[in-house]
Design goal:
The complex is a heterodimer of chains A (about 475) and B (about 1050).
Chain A: E1 5-9, H1 13-16, E2 26-30, E3 35-39, H2 41-45, H3 54-60, E4 65-68, H4 71-85, E5 92-95, E6 99-103, H5 108-111, H6 114-127, E7 133-137, H7 140-149, E8 153-154, H8 158-166, H9 177-184, H10 191-196, H11 199-205, H12 208-217, E9 235-244, H13 251-268, E10 270-281, E11 286-297, H14 300-312, E12 320-332, H15 350-361, E13 368-371, E14 381-384, E15 403-410, E16 415-425, E17 435-443, E18 448-453, E19 459-465
Parallel strand pairs in A: 2-4, 7-8
Antiparallel strand pairs in A: 1-6, 1-7, 2-3, 5-6, 9-12, 10-11, 10-12, 13-14, 15-19, 16-17, 17-18, 18-19
Helix pairs in contact in A: 13-14, 14-15
Chain B: E1 4-8, H1 21-30, E2 35-38, H2 47-57, E3 62-71, E4 75-80, H3 84-99, H4 110-114, E5 120-123, H5 129-143, E6 147-152, H6 159-173, E7 176-180, H7 191-202, H8 224-230, H9 233-245, H10 268-284, H11 290-306, H12 309-325, E8 329-332, H13 339-343, H14 358-361, E9 373-377, H15 381-392, E10 397-405, H16 408-418, H17 423-432, H18 442-449, H19 456-468, E11 472-484, E12 495-497, E13 504-509, H20 510-515, E14 521-526, H21 527-543, H22 549-554, H23 559-566, H24 579-588, H25 593-602, H26 605-609, H27 613-620, H28 631-637, H29 647-658, H30 662-673, H31 675-678, H32 682-694, H33 699-712, H34 719-738, H35 740-750, H36 758-767, E15 771-773, E16 785-789, E17 792-796, H37 807-816, H38 825-830, H39 835-843, H40 848-851, H41 854-862, H42 888-899, H43 907-913, E18 934-945, E19 954-960, E20 963-969, H44 971-976, H45 978-983, E21 986-995, E22 1001-1010, E23 1023-1024
The chains are: A alpha+beta (about 475), B alpha/beta (about 1050).
Amino acid sequence: MSPLWLYLHFPQMQLDSLHPPPEGPLVILEPRKNRVLQRNLPAQNGGVSLGMGLASVAALLPQIEVMTYQPELEQQRLQALAEDLYQWCADISLDPPSGMWLGCHSMLRLYGGLKAYWQLIDAYLHQQKVCTHYAVAGSPLGAKLLAKQGAQHLYEKTDEWLPALKACQLSLTELTSAHCQQLARLGIQTLGPLLGLPLKELARRFDIQLMTYLGRVTGQLKHPLPWFRPPSQFSRSRELRYEAETSQALLPIIGFMLGELEAYLRQRNLLASGLKITLSLRDKKQQQLEIAAAQGEYQQARWLPLVTLKLERFQLTGPVQYITLSSQTERPLSPAREDLFQPASGTLQPAQLVALLQAKLGNHAVYSVALADRHCPEQTSVRLVPFTLAPQRITAQPKRPSLLLPRALPLSQQVQVVSGPERIAEPWWQGGHTQRDYFIARAQDGRWLWIYRTPDMRWYWHGIFC
Amino acid sequence: MAYAELFCQSNFSFLKGASHPEELVQAAARLGYEALALTDECSVAGVVRAYQAIKQHNLSLRLIIGTLVVIPDELSLLLLCPCREAYSELCRVISNARGRAEKGQYRLHPWDIKSLRHCLVIWLPQGQEQVDQYWGKWLCNHQRARLWLGLSRYLQVNEQDYHQHCLALCAQFQLTLTACGGVLMHSSERLALQHTLTAIRQGKTVDTLGRELLVNAERSLRSLDKLTRLFSQQALLETLSIARRCKFSLSKLRYEYPAELVPSGHNATSYLRELVEAGILTRFGQEPDPDIRATIEKELALIQEQQYEYFFLTIHDLVAFARAQGILYQGRGSAANSVVCYCLQITAVDPRRVDVLFERFISKERNEPPDIDVDFEHQRREEVIQYLYQKYGRQRCALAATVITFRFKSALREVGKALGFAESQLAHWITNVDRRDKQNDWRAQLVEQGVNPSTLKGRLLLERVDEILGFPRHLSQHVGGFVISRGSLYHLVPIENAAMADRTIIQWDKDDLETLALLKVDVLALGMLTAIRRCFGLVEAYSGERLDMAEIATAGDDPKVYQMIQQADTVGVFQIESRAQMNMLPRLRPACYYDLVVQIAIVRPGPVQGDMVHPYLKRRDGREAVSYPSEAVRQVLERTLGVPIFQEQVIKLAMVAAGFSGGEADQLRRAMAAWKRNGELGKFRYKLTEGMRQRGYSEDFAERIYRQICGFADYGFPESHSASFALLAYVSAWLKFYHPAAFYTALLNSLPMGFYSADQLVQDAKRHGLDVRPVCVNHSQWHSSLEHTDSVLAIRLGLDRVKGLQESAAHNILTARPEGGYQQIAQLQGTGVAASQLQALASSGAFSTLQGNRYQTRWALLDNAVSLPLFADTESSAPEANLAAPDLWQDMLEDYQSTGMSLGNHPLLLLARQQRLPARTLAAELHTIRDRSVISIVGLVRGRQRPGTASGVTFMTLEDETGNHNVVVWSATAHQQKQAFLSSRLLQVKGILERGDAGVTHIIAGKLIDLSDLLDALACQSRDFH
């Protein structure tokens, strides 16, 4: 069975992945030289062409929306597409950021021929609303070249795809721009004439990369590809024997499924750092619940309290008939180092405590604090995600109060000024206009206060010293 | 209550100070300070401006010269100058510190401080015990007598501790405390700008700088009230006591000329006299006419009175060197057109042919040194500069500086980055703001582009950019202004390193030098001089005839040459080759030398803007009567038919018709020159019009003169310049007429220069019937050369035309070239020249005599097996690869890419053959079209010229295969079709043909259609906006 490769090229992956799809004209620019990489239909109708500079685009369509090219977004989408396509093809190889190979020779018998196979895949891609250029050829690089050339054709036999290959532009191949330039200077712009030159002469003039490429694209040399492996996932569904009206009623069955999860994870020595519970309701609707644990967990005993807490605040919109539990982001287990001789401190690790608190109070309510390098007192503490390190090590300012009020209060008592003034200007780039003169003062009840005065002579107190 | 500020930095502490020196002195005077010390960091670059501002506004503030020097984290000192010797010391310290480091940096060494004998030293302690103890002891050991401790108060967090620390140091070392402001800005409103400057300096955004920014605006000039509350009475009084010791003023600086120019047995006057008498014989051959002799005596008397002998001797020495080396030169400038200079052979303008304006020569009232610029051949100017360095030494000779300031583009980019705008966004705005748009200034254009002034960020951006425009960024070397002194330069001004290796600059720019009446010799470069010398060389080589510029000039006005000029056949001719000039030539029809002088001066933005051209033309043609409102005016304007054309005429009118004194007229001249910087001409309007009215001139006349002055401002040409240039214009025209092949060849070898590219010059040569032969590996030299076959001269393009070919490789090829030329490519590979160089040569088609087409050649070149001599005999009969030959289009494209021109077919001809062009009229057919007809033309955009006329018109030159089109684009058209106008390379223009008097044809553009994508990779360049 001669190998057959299907190459899928997604020329405007980022554009197609925008949600919601833009209505007006939009272009995606390459950041360094501001050249158009992708454009949507309204932009194209407005006269924007690929490779155009930003100034030209703006002159044509002043209202156009502009975004920067982000290859990471494309890669994520590619990954998601590959995971879905995995159900129809076992031999997938990714070509980031926006292409992939599907080895289809082994699938043809199952799906009844190339055409039928392609219809299946095409339907899926259509449903995903992603613009695709495709081609089938006997070598991976050949398929890629034909797809980029815009072939949109399934070539099954060698005597079909080899001639088609010869008409392809060299600029679309994997050859470096230096090679392409050199060849252009010999009058060679397409693959045909290049393949027509005697190999020995070529070898004397060009390097091994070019020769290897030629061998691979014509299928004469083997081209091993790295295979794509979808991430493993745990997913179980259970139908309820009777509809559950309250979330509490779901707990026993979830507990049972968590036990299955624990067994699955323990077998593979993995940890799950997130769970997704999908509740299918009577009226065909669905609700989803996501629970995260900062440190991965596998034990049912650890997940259950988190799920319970989450469910406490969760409102069901209808009776539940069906539950699906799936795990997300699994990673290998590496046990926390524990010294046998250390006295046991509580049973909870800090990360577990944080996860519990976040589950109970909400993610935004639990945070770490660090010092920031700022003059303005309100901005010297910053909130960070728990356990992350501050970006810089800051030395604290001297003569700062131990407790800073979130908002300064007007000073309403008699105080005795001890030291100062320290003048701090409000940051003008955030719209501040004035300055504050800070003083350390002693109140009548003996407390040490940090007070300030504005230019219009109004006094406030902002903090307390220990 | 009085105070003297001793610690103040202006924006000449680059990217640190946030106010101009002028602003600082004015603010300090307003606040009632007695004195201000300008102490920029290791620099005195700003002091002259402060000095000038005080003089100009008559401020009662005294300026103290000083500087701040720092060893980071160790020592900070203020050095102030009480007397002239201290100033020399200061300059020496700065020069040494700057000399030790690279451009823009300095490194202070304790020895520098140890060596001070006169400067006053104020120590600014660091606040750290160990460091301060060390330096306190050290300073007391070496500078006890003139040492103070400076205390600053910025209302920062640890100030009380610092204050106690300083008091303790004073007690320990027995020092007197003085108050210091630490001023970085003249008003607290500049705090935002100061932060922005810090952000620009660190390359970060303002909100990521954190505590590196100033915490408050205390580092500004503060009121006396406030200072009393911050400092003790004693500390404040001490500032006055220090300030009153500083009696040095910049007006005490006296220039001293290098003394070695005068040989023994002479003094300056007698030596100058001897040289002038010798010169008279050379120039006139005999005793000159009595009025010329009278002028010479008058000039020499004035020179002696003003003691400028050395100045002329210095220049004479310089040009004598150039003459000895065979370097062509031309002097110009106010003093250049004097008979003395003619005798000293500094200029070649014969005073018998031009009415020398004596007043412009050296004005007694001006009290300024005379001004002479000398142009040298641009390719040999470096030799002249090296001569100066060698003769006077690096200590005594340095270039004047140029202050590089923030202009719109750099301001928007840097401020935008500091405020956190995306670079792509800033780049977008920059390209879309047209600085020359007179209707919308840059602010309005930015708002149009989407910068919203009602948002915080938008408003901040506009405000900061506005403030930063004109701020200095760094010093750079001036084009050619040298300062040469008798003793070391650092007695006068500090020297620092420039970016170019082995170049040093002084810290003042040419305006500062002028303010202080210091001498500057301008050593400039002029491309045409190189071209003329090369042409002379070529002519001598093929015919033996030796030509000389002065001879050609004095031979009289050749009518044939003037006929060529009148027909505007002046591509390549100095000063009269631009499109605007070529349009004017058939109308003005210059027929003699003085006509050329007028021609050159009149076609410049000044006269056109000032509404001068048409009256002159009309009067010349006799269509308008020539009349003068008074005899005085007639004397001034007679030679230009009553129309003021030269800058000197305007000055003279101001004196004669409006009663300006010499000094006032000089101020007017300066205001005209500085118009761009501070627009102060308005002040003179009243005086001018009133003065003229009082003397009986009509209001209409007065208004007209004022408008003409405004038009002149910074564009008007002095007659002396024009006269010098007219000489070169005539000589180059003469050469073009009589020795065209040599002329074009010389121009090609002197590029870059002039108005036209090599391609356009070659096309003009071909249109004159000259044979231009392509680059050939067997016939070309490095430079373009002449080939003669049976007394017909042809131009052979040189290897220097080939892009990517280095001179060393070309040299190897030429030396290895066998008698009959190369026969095979392999021979070239055997010369050892790098493969990339041979590829470059192949691209230019230089191998066409060897191998046929470029592709075959390159294929052969790529074969690396043949390059070693060992393999030369084996397997040379490899099967030839089957490569298709390039078509005409490909050939032409490569020609352009490689040499910038194509001797074969014009791109438009090829496009037309391929039927890719719309219907059009050729340039050669234009004369058959009726005036006012609708017409469509297509051409390569070769030039966009926008003379600064008020109406905002742009002249475009479009080239097709038969010639050039003159297209006029009005600003409205340009505005609406901005894209096609600004960036197209191949343009179709639909418009109306307009035929003016004298047959000059223009096309007024209506619709502009960009056809540039038809050109693909064409490397044609357009010369924009000159």
